[in-house]
């Protein structure tokens, strides 16, 4: 739905914890076994509102549209980012303005537009890289083979938690369109 606000402050890096409290009675003394559960901190989207750039721009679909907090997936009503249709090596990147250990990148794929057009399967062969400078964004983070589906939230784990100020998403199959990009990590 246009303008849908899905929370961005909860990341799936939290581990589900299951604790079973067993109550038992031994004769007349009631005892409870207690477990202390330590939860991992909730990570916020560190890309939200940060400067973004892309290799080219189609119409008015700017790079900043992927970090504006709008969780809508109709590119026409919600303004997702979109590189030019002639761009054969498209990329999109965000400047986190500080160095982070990157743990995950999430991509919110396009949904059906108001005219009923579905091009969600174009999100494929996506590479996510991280770097300390704009000219050196080549540390691998993860890969999504695709194809994407309508309004899919693609979670790309970064198993090595690379350090970087810049996160880049690139493809070599066709132009790139991203409705929202969330980046999670810990400041270094």
What this model shows, in words?
With 188 residues, the protein is mainly β. It has one domain: Galactose-binding domain-like (Jelly Rolls), CATH 2.60.120. It contains one helix and eleven strands, in the order βββαββββββββ. The model is unreliable at 1-32 (pLDDT under 50).
Could you give me the name of the CATH homologous superfamily?
Answer: Galactose-binding domain-like
Mean pLDDT: 84
Rg, Cα atoms, Å: 20 Å
The CATH architecture: Sandwich
Low-confidence stretches: 1-32
Count of folded domains: 1
Helix count equals 1
Q: Which geometry do the CA atoms define? A: globular
Question: Could you give the distance between the termini?
Answer: 37 Å
Number of strands: 11
- Quaternary state, please? single chain
- Might you state the CATH topology name? Jelly Rolls
Main beta-sheet strand count, sense and barrel state: 7 strands, antiparallel
Q: What is the helix content?
A: under 10%
Helix/strand/pairing category: mainly beta
Order of helices and strands: EEEHEEEEEEEE
Proportion of strand residues? 35-45%
Protein name: Fucolectin-1
Keywords: Calcium, Disulfide bond, Lectin, Metal-binding
GO molecular function, one term: fucose binding
Domain Fucolectin tachylectin-4 pentraxin-1: 43-187
């Amino acid at each position: 739905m246009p303008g849908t606000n899905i929370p961005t402050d909860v990341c799936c890096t939290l581990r589900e914890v299951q604790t079973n409290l067993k109550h038992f009675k031994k004769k007349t003394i009631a005892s409870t076994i207690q477990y202390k559960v330590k939860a991992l901190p909730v990570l916020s989207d560190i890309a939200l509102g940060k400067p973004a750039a892309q290799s080219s721009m189609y119409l008015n679909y700017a790079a900043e549209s992927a970090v504006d907090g709008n969780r809508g997936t109709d590119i026409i009503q919600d303004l997702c980012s979109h590189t030019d249709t002639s761009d054969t090596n498209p990329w999109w990147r965000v400047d986190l303005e500080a160095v982070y250990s990157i743990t995950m990148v999430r991509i919110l794929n396009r949904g059906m537009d108001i005219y009923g057009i579905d091009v969600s399967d174009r999100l494929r062969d996506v590479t996510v890289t991280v770097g300390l400078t704009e000219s050196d964004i080549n540390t691998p983070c993860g890969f999504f083979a695709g194809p994407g589906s309508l309004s899919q939230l693609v979670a790309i784990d970064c198993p090595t938690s690379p350090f970087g100020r810049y996160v880049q998403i690139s493809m070599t199959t066709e132009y790139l369109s991203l409705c929202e990009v969330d980046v999670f990590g810990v400041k270094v």
